[in-house]
Amino acid sequence: MSDAVPISSAAQRPSRNRDIDALTHVELIWVEKGIEYWIRFGQEVRERIIDRRRRVLSFVPGSLFAFVRWQSNDYGTVLSRIDIVRVVDPGTAHQTLPFVSPGGDVLLTVTGWPKVVRVLQIVDAIEALEIDPVDVAPDHWRHVHNRMVARQTPRTYTPARHAAWLKRRRAGR
Length: 173
Known about the structure:
The chain has helices at residues 14-21, 113-128, 138-149, 159-171, and strands at residues 24-31, 35-42, 46-49, 54-59, 64-73, 76-86, 95-97, 100-111. It is α+β, with helices and mostly antiparallel strands and 173 residues long.
């Protein structure tokens, strides 16, 4: 008689499951004039459509994305928020966010429509420099968060700052 344990079908496909488990999933919702959850920037590697109003985008570890949430009711806006998140490796400490599974390293969180608009303007200004916001130094997004919390104007992200960040990243710092 053998003591062998039967192998489950999940155990027969470990690399595929591990690849999916390494991704961070963001659920997007769109209900006209009610709920709008969307990605402002980020490079998803997978999209899964749940139904007409919901889909899930998946991101690889190390990537950045901006997740915007807006919600209203009969009396007006009840939620407006933007989070800029860096996807972490599985098993790494992270912060949790609604509709983001498992979570990530939150670099910036802003609530209130005027502040959300200001962050969107900052993103637009970075794109006007022909810099993809996903390539911006994570420290810059933290800086923007901290300045906005302190009700101060964030420093402008410049091509020189970006070049310095790219050199630091290549150097492994």
